[in-house]
Every structure is written in C-alpha cells, then in structure tokens.
Design goal:
Elements: H1 4-7, H2 9-19, E1 33-37, E2 43-48, H3 57-62, H4 67-70, E3 74-77, H5 91-97, E4 102-105, H6 117-124, E5 128-130, H7 135-141, H8 143-151, E6 155-162, E7 167-169, H9 181-193, E8 196-200, H10 201-207, E9 222-226, E10 246-251, E11 266-271, H11 281-290, E12 295-298, H12 302-310, E13 316-321, E14 332-333, E15 351-357, E16 360-365
Parallel strand pairs: 3-4, 4-5, 6-12, 6-13, 8-9, 8-12, 9-10, 10-11
Antiparallel strand pairs: 1-2, 1-3, 7-14, 13-16, 15-16
C-alpha cells in the first residue's frame, strides 16, 4: 500500500518544476508552485508565484477555476500557505473559502509570520493537512530564502571554472577559455538566479568583465566590486551606467577627497580592514543584506575565492571542470591562501549535483 506522502510525490515534483519558472524573479520571496486536483484526483489548476509583489502560487491556481470545481479537492504546494497580509492577502484563507478537502505541503514556512499558522488555519477549518512531502527537495529549491529567514544573512554562492587539476588560468594569467560555450551559457542562467554578482579589483583590471546576464529574458544582477584602495579604472565595463545598481566596496581609510571622480550611479560602501589584509568580507555581506541583497554570486580569482572559503562564508559552489590539465608547477589555483597543513582541517563540502555540459561538467556542492 502506497503511503499518503508517496502518493503525492509526483504532484510535488510538478510544484517544484512550476516554481522554477520564476527563477531569479521572486526575491526576497520564495519560489512556490501549486497544483490543484478535483475530488476525483484530476488536475484542474496549476499556478506559481511569478514575481515579488504579485499573487502567490495558490491564489494564481485557485482564481483560475470555479469554486465548485475545487470543492472537496486537493491542493498541493511546496511551501506552507501564508497566513498573513503582506503585499497580497493570505492564501490559507482563500483555500478555506474554496472548501478544499486536503492540502499537501512540502515544507513548513520558517518565516515567524507564518511558521505553522497557515497549517493551523486549514486544520481548524476541517481541512486534512498532509506533509511534509519531498522536504529536502523543497529546502534545496528555496535555500536562499531559508538562510535569509533562519539566519538573517545573505546567501553566498561561488562560481569558478577550472581544469582537472583545479587551475583557473595559466601562470601568465591566460584563462580564455577553459570551458566550452555550453558551460558559459549555463553561467548566464546561474547569474540570473542571484541578486548580486561580486568580484575583485584584480579581476576587473585583468579581464575587464561586464558581469551582466546575457540570458534571454534574464535580469542583470546588482554588481559589487571590491576595490580596497581604488585601483580600478572607473571607465571599466563593469561600471557602465546601464541602470543596474553598482556598489563599490572600499577601505574605510580611503579619504572622501579621493572619491570625487566616482560617478553618482556608483554607491560607495566603506568597510573596515580585516586582519591587516583586505576589507572585512563579513561586514560587506552584512551591509549588502541591509540594502536588500539576499543572495550573492562570487565570480573572482583564486585569492578572493580563498578568502571567502577561509572565513566560512560560502554556502554553495558551482565548479565547472574542463577535461584539461596544466600541471602541478604552473597555473593559478581556484582557491588560494588557505594554507591547510592537515587533511582533517580541510574545508568540507557535500556534492549535491553533477551535470554534463559536454565536454565539461558542472559539479555543485554545499
């Protein structure tokens, strides 16, 4: 006999697939999809949260059908229905209004404004509540939202492209191109998911990147440049005024008189110096989070990558690996400055996914 949870897994997978349609468009809200079945078990409606400020998944699904069709049916959703008034009315109340018999959820909402209150409204109305279903998959989908709510911190991902032996460039800095066109196209999709993209002055000086999202219908993430002592050329591509927010993170020792040439479309964030080295990365992330940046994608060289890892600030790594070898006495490492003496002191991650982008692969780990 199939358990109730197993019975609804295929519909929960549909919810997750629907939710992903809004990848990069819902921040700071979570990604949510919804499927509605009539009392015979037939799918009669689907919906997803399309954009922050717009209707939630449940409301989009239910408002597309007549109440009589939904009566006695089942609603499946990957996140607990909300119970409070935000930019839209509570979904739990609408579910009760439509007289559904069952609600299947994937994950309880950790937001204190909800946190079980949505499920209580449903239960108090006599609706059968089933879940969590595919909880881990639901958590993975909304990893950014969960960290924001549970830790009140920015989610940090790091993207790098390496050879088999972990090099991002040759000894003289040549790195174009380690990976293939297919891999680089996927990078654009990854950029679209994050609120901001962060890089170093060294990368700006060496590569003069635009750091935009060139995916069709994608969005340009906010650009953040760490330039401790103002070494970069303000005419670099990354500073182009294309109506995308740009932050320039500098040392708090830099004099205001040295900032006179900085265009007004670039906002300065002064940061304290950490350990007589570069700027305090934790301070910067906290400052960005206060400015509404909920997720950051780091695309930089080995030194900054290593600094983020050393401080334990990386939640997720996207590593594109090309079937190439530079050799152990040449090349620039993807993660520098860790200076680990014992294997037991290594920074440990867990592989979560491997994707083939022939001839390269993408390894994702947390």
């Amino acid at each position: 006999m199939i358990s109730k949870d197993k019975k609804y897994e295929k519909y929960m997978k549909m919810c997750l697939k629907l939710a992903k349609k809004a990848d990069g468009k819902t921040s700071p809200n979570p990604l949510v999809g919804c499927v509605v079945l009539d009392k015979t078990g037939k799918i009669i409606a689907k919906g997803y949260h399309k954009k922050c400020g717009e209707y939630h998944a449940e409301r989009n699904a239910l408002l597309s059908i007549d109440k009589q069709k939904a009566k006695g049916g089942t609603l499946i959703v990957n996140l607990e229905p909300c119970s409070h008034y935000g930019k839209t009315p509570p979904c739990a109340d609408l579910i009760v209004e439509y007289k559904l018999a069952k609600v299947v959820y994937g994950l309880k909402d950790p937001n204190p404004k909800v946190a079980g209150k949505g499920l209580k409204i449903l239960k108090d109305a006599g609706i059968e509540v089933i879940g969590p279903v595919l909880e881990n998959e639901c958590k993975n989908l909304n990893e950014v939202f969960l960290k924001n709510i549970e830790q009140n911190k920015c989610f940090v991902a790091l993207k790098t492209a390496t050879t088999l032996d972990g090099k991002i460039a040759t000894e003289n800095g040549d790195s174009k191109w380690i990976t293939s066109d297919a891999a680089r196209e996927e990078v654009q999709k990854i950029r679209n998911r994050y609120d901001a993209i962060l890089t170093s002055s060294s990368t700006v000086i060496k590569d003069n990147p635009s750091m935009t999202c060139r995916m069709k219908n994608g969005k340009n993430p906010v650009r953040v440049v760490i330039d401790t002592n103002l070494k970069t050329d303000i005419n670099s591509k990354i500073y182009t005024n294309d109506r995308t927010k740009i932050y320039l993170a500098i040392s708090d020792k830099v004099k205001d008189s040295d900032l006179k040439g900085i265009p007004t479309h670039i906002e300065i964030i002064k940061c304290p110096i950490y350990n007589n080295s570069g700027i305090d990365l934790e301070y910067l992330l906290s400052a960005l989070y206060k400015k509404g940046i909920n997720s950051v994608l780091v695309e930089a060289g080995g030194k900054l990558n290593g600094s983020f890892l050393k401080l334990g600030l990386v939640d997720k790594i996207y590593q594109f690996i090309a079937p190439k070898v530079l050799g152990d006495k040449t090349g620039i490492n993807a993660f520098e400055g860790l200076d680990t003496k014992k294997i037991n002191n290594s920074k440990n991650f867990k592989f979560t996914e491997i994707v083939d982008y022939n001839p390269d692969i993408l390894v994702i780990y947390k």
